[in-house]
Amino acid sequence: TSAVKISPSILSADFSKLGEEVRAVDAAGADYIHIDVMDGHFVPNITIGPDVVKSLRPHSAKVFDVHLMIAPVDPYIEAFAEAGSDIITVHQEAGAHTHRTLQKIRSLGKKAGISLNPATPETTLEYLYEELDLILVMSVNPGFGGQSFISSQLRKIEAIRNRIDALGLDIDLEVDGGVNRETVQSVISAGANVLVAGSATFKGGPSKYAENIKALKGQ
Ligand code: DX5
Ligand code: ZN
What we know:
The protein is an alpha/beta fold. The chain has one domain (about 5-215): Aldolase class I (TIM Barrel). Helix content is about 30%, strand content about 20%. The chain has eight helices and eight strands; from the N terminus they run E-H-E-H-E-H-E-H-E-E-H-E-H-E-H-H. The chain has helices spanning about 20-25, 50-55, 75-80, 100-105, 155-165, 185-190, 200, 210-215, and strands spanning about 5-10, 30-40, 65-70, 85-90, 110-115, 135-140, 170-175, 195. The radius of gyration is 16 Å and the shape is globular. Bound molecules: D-xylitol-5-phosphate and zinc ion. Zinc ion (ZN) binds near residues 9, 34 and 67. Catalyzes the reversible epimerization of D-ribulose 5-phosphate to D-xylulose 5-phosphate.
């Protein structure tokens, strides 16, 4: 359906020309730009920090969907807000005080998101719904692009969709990891409305981005 948004993960882009890559997926029909921040501690990989987000900001007016896979996260929230993030998503597993962290993100005028690793149950969200603009279900173990979709996460997506609707809240339900032409329909059917796509967007190079994004939207 056309209501589904695509958030290309620049983790699969060419890091030697990130600005160009962001402009290319923007022009190709991306709805959000998904930026994966990894610290080599919370996840076994290292990517980029707030200065890179700031440098990318002039290259696109699309929503910067910043996924922080770092612990501790609180000391860096302000820097990512000032760098031009629109949505800041933190991990439920990254600290003991996610409720406070989400309030801090909103107090800086940004949208607040929480992400659940594959092993974390959706029931951990119960006392956070009022603080949330986005829920990100990880359908791979975070750290790398190009991994296979973990299908047990479909029933987590369904359960969260039901809870959001029952509460009548306006919260994006985003899925990250292994979303491609084969898995996309099951993710949409389960109730997701924002799809992260790294390898599925960037495969084939810039001349394919528009076609890749359209295919994920079922167009
Ligand atoms: C994984 C990242 C993802 C990753 C997805 O830790 O959070 O955003 O880039 O890559 P694909 O879409 O290739 O699975
Ligand atoms: Zn991500």
